[in-house]
Description:
The chain is an alpha/beta fold. Helices cover 48% and strands 15% of the residues. The chain contains 10 helices and 8 strands. The chain has helices at residues 6-16, 27-39, 54-68, 82-90, 103-111, 123-131, 142-145, 147-154, 172-181, 203-221, and strands at 18-22, 44-48, 73-77, 95-98, 115-120, 137-139, 162-164, 186-188. The strands form 2 sheets. It has a 4-stranded parallel sheet. A 4-stranded parallel sheet has the order 4-5-6-7. The radius of gyration is 16 Å and the shape is globular.
Amino acid sequence: MAQYSRIEVARVMQETGLVPLFFNNNIEVSKKVLKACYNGGARLLEFTARGDFAHEVFGELTKYAVAELPGMIMGVGSVTDAAAASLYMSLGANFIVTPVLREDIALVCNRRKVLWSPGCGSLTEIAKAEELGCEIVKLFPGGIYGPNFIKAIKGPQPWTSIMPTGGVAPTKENLEGWFNAGATCVGMGSKLIKKEENGEFDLQKIESLTKEALQIIKALKT
Length: 222
């Protein structure tokens, strides 16, 4: 069961402006990556459930976060149907992120007051998501649309909160483009969750990049 309501999660997304996202099927490796993000200041993490037995890894990762990382809000991404959303919520997911807009996922999340963020690519989809109770819309793939898309959407719909994912990097130039256009927060994957040449996660780099990204975002939001 979720520890945080959708309003609480939305507030942290808005305040911190950053949602790191990654997937690994090894629980011990996943714990280390999560800890690196946490040490860097991140207080949200989207576990992109794209592999076999991902729910088992997420369940253990959530237990670890609850026991060892106070204030860390765990969520799940790449959720494609209501059954999967319900499964992950039963394992402690505090928010659900989807690649597409699906009403069945909206219903099961709203029933439990869990934040859900659907991938949208048009004003019509964004409006439909908000009619279904969405607090923060995911713009995906963000790199295809770019900051100007957000700026255009905020014209007729200034109340819309958007989280671009894909095409986001932990650099001042990139983040400046998104937040100056009106992004509420950003989702960041491989550009933040760095690996070494041997394929292993570079934990020190992940921590430092997370810290730097949050500092840049804080400056842009003030």
